[in-house]
Amino acid sequence: MKKELAVVMLLSVILLSGCGPDKPATVTPDSSESPSKQVATQRVQDTDAKEIGTSENEKVKLYSITDGVKLDINGNQKDFVWNVPVDTGTAPQVFYTDVTGDGKEEAVIIIQTGRGTGLDNYDIHVVSDKDLSEFKVQSYEEIVADQLETHVAKKGDDTLAISVKAQGKEYNFNYGFDPVPDHKQDSLAFGGVYIYYLENQKIKLNLGGAVVGSTTYVCDFNVTYKFDSAKNEFVADQIEVKPIEK
Length: 246
Description:
Elements: H1 2-17, H2 35-47, E1 50-54, E2 60-65, E3 68-73, E4 76-80, E5 93-97, E6 106-116, E7 119-128, E8 134-137, H3 140-147, E9 148-154, E10 160-166, E11 169-175, E12 193-199, E13 202-210, E14 217-228, E15 233-243
Parallel strand pairs: 7-12, 8-15
Antiparallel strand pairs: 1-2, 2-3, 3-4, 5-6, 6-7, 7-8, 9-10, 10-11, 12-13, 13-14, 14-15
């Protein structure tokens, strides 16, 4: 009888131990996702960023990434969705210089975005090294709409009479031939050539004015920008008009 009682008690202990509260399952790492492999994957991701431009003092570096570019200023990085074509043949220009006039450098990136017959396009980006925020630079479209007036008229000798008003100053000149005699003319066309560059820590723009319906450029507009601290952006300050002689 004592032997049978001992067997019953032993079975009870075994059954009670199996009825305890549930415990969270222990997840065993998959050997296929070992830490060494995870590190290797991160390294592959890092190598996807390809350096495509650097400033002369190497304090600003530009990298191409899958969804745009990565900008590095003194070790601080930020991604931007900028258009950087790979087929223009011109590498991005990268500068680290004071263009706002506050005594502190900014990153300036100039990228060629279009190239071809009668076509030469550039974009410009100015980024603060403090918080990596981007300053607005007044576009050529805004300059044309707000500060330029142009008029083109055909003359009887197959030449064109062109008048331009920029910042209140008027220019009148003739162009030696009409490249599209069957096309009605009214004003100059813009957008084929706009080239940004830096000169003496100033942002400048060369903007070409063409005869509508052609790639014939009859006038250059050389724009010098200034930084407007109230608007916190770069705006056109001076516009020089230069007729192109045939």
